[in-house]
Amino acid sequence: MIRKATHNDIPRILELLSQVNDVHADGRPDFFIKGKRKYNEEDLLKIINDDTTPVFVCEENDDIKGYAFCVIQDLSRCDNLRPDKSLYIDDICVDENYRRHGVGKKLYEHVFQFAKEEKCFNITLNVWAKNPGAQAFYESMGMTVQKVCMEKILIDN
Fold first, then answer.
1. How far apart are CA 74 and CA 42, in angstroms?
2. Host H or E run for residue 117
């Protein structure tokens, strides 16, 4: 079952945030710190309680198997863009024990339906180049490349 996250889900979401950070740290140890996560308990409480940042969890048998962090972006403040809403997927994570079991697909499809109900123009996300599995997953969900983010590293770690 996919549902909106509540404050009771925060401990499990924190575990999953650590898992996804470690995946990124394996691919980009120069950028990510293994064993850390991008949000703490206080951050999560604010995010979960904000209607513009919905968080969905996939729960089966009283266990949260994954989450999707979303941001509803209001593009009407940009003079050069159509005055639409966009849904940005900040993060999708599936517990390492449940990957390749359809959890990510269920989460993505729920987010897709939610974005349609919210009358969003599109869904966007960023995916790291060192995460080809995620790239392939998003392509299998019908996503296409919108833009490419490039970098030049200036400090040798």
1. 25
2. helix 103-117
**Nearest residue to 151 (alpha-carbon basis) of 128, 122, 123:** 128
DSSP, collapsed to helix, strand or coil, labels residue 11 as helix
pLDDT in tens, 39-51: 999 999 999 999 9
Q: What is the pLDDT of residues 10-31, one digit of tens each?
A: 999 999 999 999 999 999 999 9
In the chain, where the domains are located: 2-140
Whether the model clears a pTM of 0.90, i.e. scores above it, the answer is: yes
> What CATH architecture is 2-140?
3-Layer(aba) Sandwich (3.40)
Among 44, 29, 48, 20, which residue's Cα sits nearest to residue 127?
20
Note the pLDDT of residue 76.
82
**b/e map of 107-146 (b: 16 or more CB within 10 Å)?**
bbebbbebbeeeebeebebebeeebeebeebbeeeebeee
Summary mean pLDDT of the chain: 94
